[in-house]
């Protein structure tokens, strides 16, 4: 009986015809098939310099490194050790110079525009630009702890820690970050200017057939597809909701506690006819929970036309968060919206804003919590590239994978796909990658490569 976890081997240097990171090669091959490298390269000016490494390629290979779990410029060396898979990979110092010298805020904006052009191609292939249903955007902020005071614009935050307070906007349909804004740790959670800045950048990142009519200076007459933005109570400000109205964007924002809301709940709390049974995301009834419309009990004259207040109550449970209304039996939460559906359906829709927490956690597991530079501009560029890398992985999952891998988290993708081993052989001047026999997800990698061929 073998009771050891490994076999006794002699470990020596000098290995040949071995390939690691085979799945990352497939991800890079997908990016090449979508011409992502060309789009990124065109966005970065060279100022007539002769560069050994095209800066668009540097950004793209950094995205591959981030997808593989890299958290610092030095992690690019693990791709550099595989020239047969990734070609000429830049050194960590080249990656550092790219972020600190080349990726200025204006250049990052051009990179995002290049990503938007590729996103339009991906969404059209995936069928996301067809149909008449609303396109849902989710805005939320998060905290990034930084254990150094040497990074520019880090500051104490409201939870007693220290670092940055980035704000992001995600497309609910795909989970990808459309835009983001790196902010000091003491930035306000309910800063309407930041909310609108992130919203405008997200709209600009959408395919043209969806974004049409939703820019700040549009008159709304050429809107072809409804866009709805969800936010927590930080978005429940007059400036933000009127900004949504000016952009022909509908909103759903969590309500804050105030005298009017408390009075409205008091008026309907004991009226059985006001409440309807709440439903879960799967359509089943939520035991003990109910939804009511309280629009007639509050003065919404200062809000955009058609604004409604919806209240949901559910039985108290241990650890329940703060409620809009003090009660020993129920916890009350509410939200404002200008949508036209029934209260129960709107409640289901608004509670799906919780998806944003999963999307933020997804990015935090992919480099969002690591800011390797002293310069705030360089760290802002890093955050943007982290979001771009996340979008690339989401696109790959949607177009090239199926089953559980199409919904897998970053850790599972790294374990099962990105770092898969293989044998590298040469035949007829062609390099061939032969995936390890018995690798559990070998067929998924082969299938992804077959789909990539059909994309070209």
Short description:
With 456 residues, the chain is an alpha+beta fold. Helix content is 40%, strand content 17%.
Task: Outline the structure in words.
Strand 4 and strand 5 form a beta hairpin. The relative contact order is 0.14. The mean pLDDT is 92. The chain has 16 helices and 15 strands. By secondary structure, the chain is α+β, with helices and mostly antiparallel strands. The protein folds into 2 domains: 172 residues, no CATH class; 229 residues, Transposase Inhibitor Protein From Tn5, Chain A, domain 1, CATH 3.90.350. The strands form 3 sheets. A 9-stranded mixed β-sheet has the order 7-6-2-8-9-13-12-11-10, sandwiched between helices. Helix content is 40%, strand content 17%.
Layout: helices, strands, pairs:
Blueprint: E1 18-19, H1 22-33, H2 36-43, H3 55-67, H4 77-80, H5 83-86, H6 92-102, H7 105-125, E2 135-141, E3 144-145, E4 155-156, E5 162-164, E6 167-171, E7 177-181, H8 192-205, H9 208-211, E8 227-231, H10 238-246, E9 249-254, H11 259-268, E10 276-279, E11 285-293, E12 308-315, E13 330-337, H12 343-351, H13 355-368, H14 376-400, H15 410-418, E14 422-427, E15 430-435, H16 442-455
Helix pairs in contact: 1-3, 1-16, 2-3, 2-7, 3-6, 3-14, 7-14, 8-10, 13-14
